[in-house]
Design brief:
This protein is an alpha+beta fold and 291 residues long. It has two domains: 28-108; 113-263, Thrombin, subunit H. It contains two helices and twelve strands; from the N terminus they run H-H-E-E-E-E-E-E-E-E-E-E-E-E. The chain has helices at 2-21, 29-108, and strands at 113-121, 129-132, 145-148, 151-159, 164-168, 175-180, 186-191, 197-203, 213-216, 228-236, 243-250, 259-263.
């Protein structure tokens, strides 16, 4: 292959020299020889010129593609930077909105609260708990209630200097007193394994219904009266038991807790329920049996 290349190049050189040294003739054998040499040399020269132009064209396209590729990489980097900035601003706006809602609620409440940020969650399935960035140095103590604008969240069960552990109301080891808002029946709200809650020990003759709102009763624990807990989704009466139980779907999305309020003193003078009480003219005695 290398020999053929060399022979082709040599042939081109010979033809070029021949064209240079053959004198120009008007007619005769030399003219015929010149024509023959030009005819023979023109084909490889045209091929060589075509190959050269093709190489130049390919090289130009390659350089253009390299330039476009570099521009695309630069644009992708710029888009990624802008997207990151947009996400950061969006997250900042969402956090600002949440904090504004929390601070507005804090100002409206008749009792003292402390804003805190959720900094960790229980990574196991044994407990439903969160860790907040406020502790003993901020006045937080065990059994203080924790809430959000949507209602009760849990109570403080462990405190250190700069953080505290909050056991959520959906944990089966937690228990707070609850009140069915419409019927005024009180019971104990406990967590369940599937992340909801039950209100237990309701009167057997209560006319509690699916959809009724359950709030904190304020009789025990670190919560004032009237904080929303959730809505009743199912009512259960077991044989040989003297009380009713009802399943509650909490109003709070415990998987998205980011900021909370710690209730520092739920029984301060002037504390008021967040939710309205029922019409006092409604009959106080209920005899309808749950079926």
């Amino acid at each position: 292959m290398a020999g053929a290349k060399r022979a082709f190049v040599l042939l081109l050189a010979v033809l070029a020299i021949a064209l240079l040294i053959v004198p120009e003739a008007n007619d005769g054998p030399l003219k015929n020889m010149e024509r023959a040499l030009v005819s023979v040399a023109s084909h490889p020269l045209r091929i060589l010129d075509s190959v050269t132009q093709g190489i130049d064209s390919v090289w130009s396209r390659y350089l253009a593609l390299r330039s476009v590729s570099d521009e695309n990489r630069a644009l992708r980097r710029e888009i990624a930077t802008l997207q990151e900035e947009a996400n950061r601003l969006q997250e900042k706006a969402a956090a600002t909105e949440r904090l504004a809602t929390l601070l507005n609620l804090k100002e409206e409440l008749a009792y003292t609260t402390l804003a805190a940020r959720v900094i960790a969650r229980d990574p196991t399935n044994w407990y439903h708990s969160i860790v907040i960035n406020k502790g003993q140095d901020d006045g937080v103590s065990i059994d203080m209630g924790v809430m959000t604008p949507t209602g009760a969240v849990g109570r403080v069960v462990k405190v250190q200097r700069q953080l505290a552990v909050v056991l959520l109301i959906i944990d089966r080891n937690n228990a707070i007193t609850g009140l069915v808002q419409r019927t005024r029946d009180e019971g104990i709200v406990e967590g369940t394994e599937k992340g909801w809650a039950w209100i237990k020990y309701l009167p057997l003759l209560s006319n509690v219904k699916v959809g009724d709102i359950v709030v904190t009763s304020g009789m025990a624990g670190g919560f004032p009266r009237g904080l929303p807990i959730g809505r009743i989704t199912r009512i259960e009466r077991r044989e040989a038991e003297l009380f009713l139980s009802a399943e509650i779907q909490p109003d709070t999305d415990f998987g998205r807790l980011e900021e909370v309020l710690v209730i520092m003193n739920p029984r301060e003078t002037g504390a008021l329920p967040l939710l309205p009480v029922p019409d006092p003219s409604a009959p106080a005695k209920r005899t309808e049996r749950i079926r």
